[in-house]
Design goal:
6-stranded mixed β-sheet
């Protein structure tokens, strides 16, 4: 079966005898070499302890500003969407983009990856895609008489899952362990994924008869869900002018490193969340559970806290205020809500919760 991944490098990972040199394959695509540990135990942590040292608030806020500005050089007129992507990345989350084809979803993901000098891979989800096409597969090496692991496209810092709802649920679920735990287990061996690791998945909402609904468990693992939407006339004219020659993505240069992202994530994790703010988040979630068949889970509440922390860093603060929670609530909570009449009412329920739940 052909490799479904499309990387930013034109790397050929095939071997004449069907084997692959794992270290070389991963090195050439820019990802970290996967660490395998049998029996489900955790692999050793990174030896570079400076990765865990938080940036100060001003430095982290400046990093966010640089990333947003750099991506906006390619993505025209979508400031809020670009902020959502960067916040998702710093909140250790994953993003679901639901929209029509051709509005810049792939370009957005590539621009973010290039801005932090990260590895990027794309998986085109199709009905015949297998879970092993996503996570990787053991291939027999005739030279050594052993099985070598050929890492799948999930072994990258930024993974674009394009049209994820075109693949059956079994294949979609291949991302579950990766998204939640940052690791992949194949044949009893657990391999850590690169750090940072962020999935940006897209789904097509214009051909419902030819797609599979995402499982609730998978939906809940996406930190945010957004739409890009069509550009207005002025924005589209600007896009046409920029793409008359070379594609703008080719000119995107890194403004940070993956180490910077790891340190900024540590900064976000240290942002203070007071007890009243935590209670406010819990009450918002509780309201959705009363009003819907399936309300916001504790995982959703945690995602809201983490994105509010990232929003605080974006604004140059070391503490969360209720405005941070309110700004993030719709994109973090609405897609997790299910009602008897469908998921479309999620936005309404979140808006109602924001109106009715008092800030104390």
């Amino acid at each position: 079966m052909s490799d479904p991944a499309e990387t930013t490098d034109s790397t050929d990972t095939s071997d004449s005898d069907g084997s692959a040199d794992v270290a070389e394959t991963v090195r050439m695509t820019g990802a970290e070499e996967p660490t395998g540990v049998a029996g489900g135990s955790e692999p050793p942590p990174s030896a570079d302890l400076t990765d865990q040292v938080p940036l100060d608030i001003d430095a982290a806020s400046d990093l966010v500003d640089r990333l947003v500005e750099n991506v906006e050089a390619v993505i025209v007129g979508k400031h809020d969407a670009v902020e959502h992507v960067v916040i998702t990345l710093l909140a250790r989350g994953h993003l679901l983009v639901e929209d029509v084809p051709g509005v810049g979803k792939t370009t957005l993901a590539k621009a973010v990856a290039r801005s932090v000098d990260a590895s990027f891979k794309r998986v085109q989800f199709t009905p015949d895609l297998l879970p092993s096409d996503v996570t990787g597969v053991n291939v027999f090496n005739q030279r050594t008489d052993e099985f070598d692991f050929r890492p799948g496209p999930v072994f990258a810092n930024v993974v674009l899952g394009d049209e994820i709802n075109r693949a059956p649920p079994k294949t979609q679920s291949a991302l579950l362990e990766a998204m939640e735990e940052g690791q992949v287990t194949t044949d009893g061996v657990t391999r850590r994924l690169p750090n940072p690791f962020c999935v940006i998945a897209t789904q097509n909402d214009v051909e419902p008869g030819r797609t599979y609904e995402l499982p609730v468990a998978e939906i809940d693992r996406f930190t945010k869900k957004i739409r890009l939407g069509y550009p207005d006339v002025r924005e589209e004219a600007s896009i046409l002018g920029r793409t008359a020659g070379d594609h703008p993505i080719d000119a995107v240069e890194p403004v940070a490193t993956v180490k910077d992202v790891r340190r900024a994530r540590a900064t976000v994790a240290d942002v203070d969340v007071s007890e009243p703010v935590r209670t406010y988040v819990a009450r918002l979630a509780e309201h959705t559970r009363r009003e819907a068949t399936l309300g916001v889970s504790p995982r959703g509440s945690l995602a809201l806290v983490r994105t509010a922390q990232a929003r605080a860093v974006l604004d140059g603060r070391g503490y969360v205020i209720p405005d941070d929670v309110q700004t993030e609530a719709r994109t973090v909570l609405a897609h997790r809500i299910r009602t008897d009449s469908g998921a479309a009412e999620g936005d309404e329920i979140v808006s109602e919760a924001l109106d009715r739940v008092p800030v104390e």
